[in-house]
Design brief:
Number of helices: 11
Distance between the termini: 15 Å
Order of helices and strands: EEEHEHHEHEHHEEEHEHEHEHH
Oligomer: single chain
Structural class: alpha/beta
Helix content: 25-40%
Largest sheet: 8 strands, parallel, barrel
Radius of gyration: 16 Å
Strand order of the largest sheet: 1-4-5-6-7-10-11-12
Number of strands: 12
Shape: globular
Strand content: 25-35%
Amino acid sequence: MLAKRIIPCLDVKDGQTVKGVNFVNLRQAGDPVALGRAYSEQGADELVYLDITASHEGRKTFADMVRRVAEEVSIPFTVGGGISELHDVERMLLAGADKVSINSAALRRPALIDEIASHFGSQVCVVAIDAKLDADGWHCYLNGGRIPTDRGLFEWAHEVNERGAGEILFTSINHDGVKHGFANEALARLSDTLSIPVIASGGAGCKEDFRDVFTLGHADAALAASVFHFGEIGIAELKDYLRNENISVRL
């Protein structure tokens, strides 16, 4: 069995790590480079850095911070936000990122997934999907959860898989920051029907939530923010707990 991955997520706005609830009401959580270094030292498997207002504000992800992160951490990290063309991907990889995450740009122009996979390899391309469970099912949202689309979560995820993405990062907007557990039913449906790994995001509040996302949600990796940023759960402590629950993790 492949080891399950624990991935702290650092949402970055104006050079600071921030965290909100349901994608709004942001509060500061610290310097993104220092936090990344600390997580690397504490045993995190990977990191994700998201420039959360890049697409909304129409600007590019900052390469300078990526360079500083690359100098400080010893684990793989993914960068997302404002990436809409191959040049953006190349800039992030040259700055030191291991993978890039695309979201709004992929929904607007799905061929971008094929282009990244063919130019840089599928392993570089993480497609993030922000979705909300509405009255008539799960729908994908653009621009950091601000704009609803008519794309359904499951049909879009299957298209992403077919186009050559290496991983899907699924965030439930309903669960984001609420700390009542992940969207395990939707995650299990994704994980059981796709051929690529699924990273779960949105809802981590306690160690049991991580157990459930792996056992009930069948996720390959679990991403969380505030429980790590504000010291509610330690990564080493979490991994010890998961191992005692017979879940394979790297110690």
